[in-house]
Records
---
Amino acid sequence: MSFAALGLSAPLLKAINKQGYNTPTPIQSQAIPAVLDGSDVMAAAQTGTGKTAGFTLPLLELLSQGELAKPSQVRCLILTPTRELAAQVGESIAAYGQNLPLRSTVVFGGVKINPQIALLHRGVDILVATPGRLLDLYNQKALKFNQLEILVLDEADRMLDMGFINDIKKVLKVLPKQRQNLLFSATFSNDIRDLAKGLVHNPVEISVTPRNATANTVKQWIHCVDKKEKGDLLVQLIKDNQWKQVLVFTRTKHGANKLTKQLNEKGITAAAIHGNKSQGARTKALAEFKQNVTRVLVATDIAARGLDIEQLPQVVNFELPNVAEDYVHRIGRTGRAGATGNAVSLVAADEVDQLIAIERLIKQVLERRHMDGFEANHIVPVTTLDSRPMKNKPKNASGANSSSRSNAPRSSSNKGRGRGGNGSNLPTQNKPSRNSTNNTNKKPTASTPKDGLRSQPMSPKRRPNG
Ligand code: AMP
């Protein structure tokens, strides 16, 4: 299937070609015709599936056929949970729409509002916004929705997680009833379905990844390690494997700062990205990471959400997330659009419960690996995947050999079907290996847009989310 066969016109095909995309991803081949058809769409798709192009390409096509935005009017509103995601969606729109006469802009909090008001005054065909700042602008009468045709909620699950539900409801109230609605979410929880009820009408439902599945292009494993050894183990992993570009997740901002300092002291260039950093510092850290000036980017979950980093081969969970779903989001940074990636988790004694929750969520027992000199004083048991109480749970911690042993899954759900019999890529004979990671990355390239579409992203400054 080609992009041309999906019904996109020459200016968009030219831009797609410039991005180096040859074939639509599954979400694109399903979403593009549905959106072009004027249908409401409800799509379950993680980042990394090509979802952004899945909605931006057809909406650019639709908008290019209508009347351009009049002063202060917005024809298409895209809501995103974070500033980073807003900026990335804005970049995609600028890249794909570079041959079209449409105007787009991105607005989010933490930067001055007056320049945004001035830009909106002319009217924009596409506005990408975080909910808080959008409401501020609306309340200041900086924009009007009489001409609104399309509403997109991107990463709706995260918007609810971040407490934006009331803001979203307020926005919905001021939009015209007659419009096309597109709802994108990594997962469809009951909360999302509730939200969808009042939003989409007879939607085309699309799901490109099973709920909470992790991309099978990502190789995942864990190291059991004592908490205080984690920093040294990470340094060792980076050096031994010669990892050039590593995204590392910590649970806290303080933890991110501390680890960044430790890595820099060991001669590994690292920068932190989290909510306490100014927007300028975050943008700089991300840019330097993308340009391989910085080898390690240490991020908290919210800061990292939706970051689109080209060709990212390596994700490390320095600490496991408290919410198991965040594991899926985190490792969605790698193995994108068909590329291969590695996701490594460092698991301390007090993180075993989180690990069990994660393995049950993704229905996969992660390979346990061992690194000489970093033997843990705890055992990470093999998780049973069926949510029943664990059998054979070790009662005590007994040192190096236990933690280094290859733990093939023995879940009751696998009984009678052999190892890995549930169809997932369960590890079987997982030999401890120091250098067995594979950094080859075949990800298709997509250049960052420099021009196009009269796009006017706001210059970022300080303060977390808008
Ligand atoms: P997304 O899921 O929207 O965050 O996109 C993930 C990555 O896939 C981005 O880097 C896109 O540039 C890239 N991408 C999107 N569509 C395609 C495609 N059809 N072929 C190759 N790469 C793509």
---
Amino acid sequence: MEHVRLSELSRSFLTNESIILWWSVANLILVYLTKDEEAMLEGEYGEGKQIAMSLLVDVGEFFEAEKLIDIASAHISGVSYLTGGDGLIDQLDLFVSKGAKVAVPSTLNPCGMDRDHYQDLYIDLDFATKQFRILDNFERMDVATTCSCTPYDFSHLLTKGQHVAWAESSAVTFANSFFGARTNKEDSLTVLSAAITGKTPYYGFHLEEERIPNVAVDVKAIIDEYSDYSILGEIVGKAFSKHAFPFGAIPVFKGLSNPRPQDLKALGAALASFGTQLFHVEGITPEQELIAKASIQDQISVTEEDIISTYEKFRPTAEPDIAVIGCPNANLEEIAAVTKLVKGRTLKKNKAFWLFSSSAQKAIADKSGYLKVLNEAGVRFVTDTCPEVFKYDKDKFKIILTNSIKAAHYIPAPSLNNIPTYLLPLRECVEEMYQ
Ligand code: F3S
């Protein structure tokens, strides 16, 4: 038998029979809970789960979810001390003190430093101590401290229609679009609550009707490089940002030929910067049946001139002293591409070239021989963190170069790093920094 959760005031005087009447009169939002979910809410599984369940029910009520659903995995954001500060530590301390543990396989987004090499990457001891405390708290809750924004590269492979709760915007867009899995863009607290309970409210992208394309893009340009996809996402995201769709613009692309997974990752990360959490590509992405049901409210064409003029806006106007690649974190093919371009070359004086990826990818790169070549060419392989949430030494790095539009948006002001950042295709980044 299903149970009903109402606001505390309503619970105190309504009987089950009167609920339907009350709902129709006062238009209250009801979230149906199973017995097990009700028990969590009553604290029978401990205070940690109780807090988490209470928050999810409130979110469900806000979004008018009819019920909660089970999730297969969670990917948790809110990990870097740079962006979370002491408030993040307090929040995690609370859950740990209440004995909270995750109920489903759960991975972590990047933190604010490379755990193994923070001393030689200009991270001060106070920052490192607090970052380790955050990671320790996650470990106590049985979260896998993978510290990467691309869990799908080494864990959490998803199936079409599978419900998950993920929080990192680029990963959400990739999970929804590339795999056809179903997740809303969770925030750091709702995703942690979902991980602890194994549940999420049934609304938004969990419903098929919310996944239907509402805008269309005709790509008339040759889109080839990873950074081309990033630029395409910038153009499309900006063009449709004027609309107030309840769950953002859901573009359907035509004219893209044979994008690689990392290309769609770059496209999704750029679109996510404008609030898009799902896109479809004709003939490529898994939910082709939804393209047939499209309800198009706006459409654009993207030409070669659009791509060139957008590149121009991000072209360096000052000399960069560091190039950062790996936003989202680089997969093995991207690592191989950098390796090929830098092999046997020497960095220009006072230049740095950093490649951001997960420890898991680093281990594979090591076994594959890429790491040795990268080390010899002076590339710093940075793990556990990302170009945005890393705390740069501003005396050393004043101008940044990247091949990712998301990094180009989030590293400059008003971010905490606040460093001017420019964009070039990968090959040109290498030419800029190497002799
Ligand atoms: Fe990932 Fe950081 Fe970019 S979380 S998408 S590398 S800004």
